[in-house]
Amino acid sequence: ECTAEGVTGSLFFYPRGSLITSYRTVRLQEITAEVPTGHVPRSMTVRLFGTLARSLHPGDTVTVSGVLLPVPAEGLRRLRMGLAQDTNFVAMSCSKRKEDYGSTCLTPEEQETLEQMMARDDFQDILTNSIAPEIFGHRDLKRALLLAMTGSVPRVL
Q: Residues 95, 122: one domain?
């Protein structure tokens, strides 16, 4: 109750008159391939609202457009930070840069090269030798590792 302004009523939650939207906070991290050697990838907090909240999944490479907003600190943290504030990025649009596994397509040249390699009799030996080439021998272990990595029941990702 607020008696200073002469108001003595209480606040009540009215679900029918309330607008409830989807909300998600994500941490975006710089792509590790673009980070200079010896540096830590930078990260940023991004807030997603509405349909954007379900558009991103962990591991997606995305381009995000939006507004950078300051977020005031609360409590004792405000006293320690002074005028400095954290920043949050409110996303207005998101677009995926990396396609899903199911939509990955090979170019005709890659398809032809793959078919030529698969037609060879020593294809499995080539793949076996490509696993840990600096370790000499242990062909049976390398072949077992190859089959463990590639041989499985087909599944849809």
A: no
Q: To the nearest 10°, the Cα dihedral for 108, 110, 115, 117?
A: 160
CA distances from 86 to 11, 40, 83 (A): 31, 19, 10
143: closest CA among 126, 155, 156, 157? 126
At residue 24, the pLDDT reads: 92
| Closest residue by Cα to residue 92 from 57, 65, 55 | 65
Choose the final residue of a domain: 58, 84, 99: 99
Q: Is the pLDDT of residue 69 over 60?
A: yes
Q: What integer pLDDT is reported at residue 6 of this predicted model? A: 66
Give the whole-angstrom CA distance, residue 40 versus residue 86.
19
The boundaries of the domain holding residue 125 are: 106-150
* Global pTM exceeds 0.85: no
Between 9 and 115, the higher pLDDT residue: 115
Q: Which DSSP helix (H) or strand (E) runs through 49?
A: strand 43-49
